[in-house]
Amino acid sequence: MSKVLSHMTMSLDGYIAEPDGSIGELFEWYAAGDVAVDNPNETVRFAVDEASAAVLRDLTENVGALIAGRRLFDIADGWGDKHPAGSPVVVVTHHPPEDAAERWPTTTFVDGVAAAVERAKAIAGDKDVTIASANVTQQALALGLLDEVCVSLVPVLFGEGISYFSTIGGGHQLLEDPEVVQGRRALHLRYPVRH
Fold this sequence. Notes:
There is one protein chain. With 195 residues, the chain is an alpha/beta fold. It has five helices and twelve strands. It has helices at 50-61, 70-75, 100-103, 113-124, 134-142; strands spanning 4-11, 15-17, 35-37, 46-48, 63-69, 89-92, 107-110, 128-131, 148-154, 162-163, 179-183, 186-192. The strands form three sheets. An eight-stranded mixed beta sheet has the order 7-6-5-8-1-9-12-11, with helices on both faces. The two termini are 16 Å apart. The relative contact order is 0.25. The mean pLDDT is 92.
């Protein structure tokens, strides 16, 4: 059965980026081993340890659509219209780029998180939808649209930055016990959301 999940790499103190949006040492785990994990974007290379390779494959091989926020989409320049997950991307934005259809023909731009999840589910079919945005994840949790929270927790403390879970509407959100995989330079955690 398909599900909607989020996945972000996070510092031990809860940040997914530095205040200026840079990632610092967060993605070191993507190059901390000698197991190559293929992806359709020739500009991105993953060489991780065996445990992280299994996690990464699981997170990417069953993805039918990926939801991103506009800020990440702009930072990544739309991944050249080939996200490393190998799936179409749905971007949440109030202002799509004027040249979107020409530059990113496989990317869909929608206004709002609920609309993004609905569109991504339609695109994904019976595959999973992954959210790769802290803000979109927070809104999806508040709307009851998220089934699982995935975190690749890395051994660095930022002290400040962009938080994975800065505000969650509706009070406490309970999660089930995590599935835990110890990788090199990352502890991978998967928490089903309690509905």
